[in-house]
Specification:
single chain, 114 residues, mainly beta, 7-stranded mixed β-sheet
């Protein structure tokens, strides 16, 4: 079993920054890809970013150049640094990992005001 706990969300003005954390427990996730997804009100959950076990990254076009995903294997934690935030980034952000089974965190709310 893997437990994922997101934190770091909040209310920020457009142009501001936030850093989200996804802390894993139950087993190490350092060898596995970890993903961030987000879901805005009335919309489907969408992919945001992924970091592989080797550290390679992938981003949705909508966040490329503004968001950075990273991981600290010693802390079993993955981060999402979000800069130049826009109102359209408002959503609940979830981390996700698949280790034989799919595991999602409970989500953290990010609200960007214009």
């Amino acid at each position: 079993q893997v437990q994922l706990v997101e934190s770091g969300g909040g209310l920020v003005q457009a142009g501001g920054s936030l850093r989200l954390s996804c802390a894993a427990s139950g087993r190490t996730v350092s060898s596995y890809p970890v993903n961030w997804f987000r879901q805005a009100p009335g919309k489907e959950r969408e992919f945001v970013a992924r970091i592989s076990g080797s550290g390679s990254t992938l981003y949705a076009d909508s966040v490329k150049g503004r968001f950075t995903i990273s991981r600290d294997n010693a802390k079993n934690t993955v981060y999402l640094q979000m800069n130049s935030l826009k109102p359209e980034d408002t959503a609940v952000y979830y981390c996700y990992v698949n280790i034989a089974n799919a595991y999602w965190g409970q989500g953290t709310q990010v609200t960007v005001s214009s």
